[in-house]
Amino acid sequence: MKHLFTSEMRQRLVASRVIATVTVQNVEDAKPLADALLAGGINTVEITMRTPAALQVMKIIAENYSEMLVMAGTVISSLQVRQVQDAGATCAVAPGVNRRVLQAASEAQFPFAPGVATPSEIEEAMEFDCDILKFFPAEPMGGLKYLKSMQAPYAHLDLQFIPLGGLTAENAEDYLQEDIILAVGGSWIASASAITSGDWVGITQRSNAVMQ
Predict the structure, then answer these.
(1) Residues acting as catalytic residues
(2) Whole-structure pTM over 0.85, yes or no?
(3) Strand, coil or helix: 21
(4) Domain-wise residue ranges, the chain
(5) Where are the beta strands (DSSP E) in the chain?
(6) Distance CA 159, CA 157 (A)
């Protein structure tokens, strides 16, 4: 699906550096969450499909914040591919490789980055022409050292990765210094509890800290 991620979209992801991965329970939190992230310098958000509110939250942010790149996360069914596309998401990611989902994304002409943690999964994703891959769970799998070893046999293919899982403000920069990293994903920036409790100031502060 390399042709589906336009050069403009790739450039926006590189420029964004950090993707705030969020799980939102309440629709009314969509706008204050977007405001808090933007105030801290983060303009890319991955909204996970883990709550009933997810699709409406995507729609609200996509329609009201043109400066924000809206990604859909945890897209694990063919139906969800169409749902998140209709809700205004620009692209989607998943924790794993699901051939039916990748086929649905390809047919819908929808940019999709499957999750990989092994060379076999990289090769499965490559069958669908995916060259942007989510590396998950990044730190528990062995972090940057493991990723570089796993990626080495495919270095000539110019694959790029979005690591997520165990990243922090402290180790994110190590990843971002590598050419194989398109951007990093972080759930620590706006945790589910921070969103539910309305800790918008804290979210802005954590956003600002990682973007420095």
Answers:
(1) 46, 134
(2) yes
(3) strand
(4) 7-211
(5) 18-22, 44-48, 69-73, 91-93, 112-113, 115-116, 132-135, 160-163, 184-186
(6) 6
On whether the CB atoms of residues 29 and 81 are closer than 8 A, the answer is no
3-state secondary structure of 48: strand
CATH architecture, domain defined by 7-211: Alpha-Beta Barrel (3.20)
Q: Give the length of the chain.
A: 212
Q: Residue 48 — φ and ψ, nearest 5°? A: -80, 145
Beginning with the edge strand found earlier in the chain, give each strand of the sheet holding 184-186 in spatial order. 112-113, 91-93, 69-73, 44-48, 18-22, 184-186
Cα–Cα dist 115/171, whole Å: 20
131 closest CA partner among 149, 109, 101, 156: 156
pLDDT tens track, the chain, 212 positions: 777 999 999 999 999 999 999 999 999 999 999 999 999 999 999 999 999 999 999 999 999 999 999 999 999 999 999 999 999 999 999 999 999 999 999 999 999 999 999 999 999 999 999 999 999 999 999 999 999 999 999 999 999 999 999 999 999 999 999 999 999 999 999 999 999 999 999 999 999 999 98
Please give the single-letter amino acid code of residue 141. M
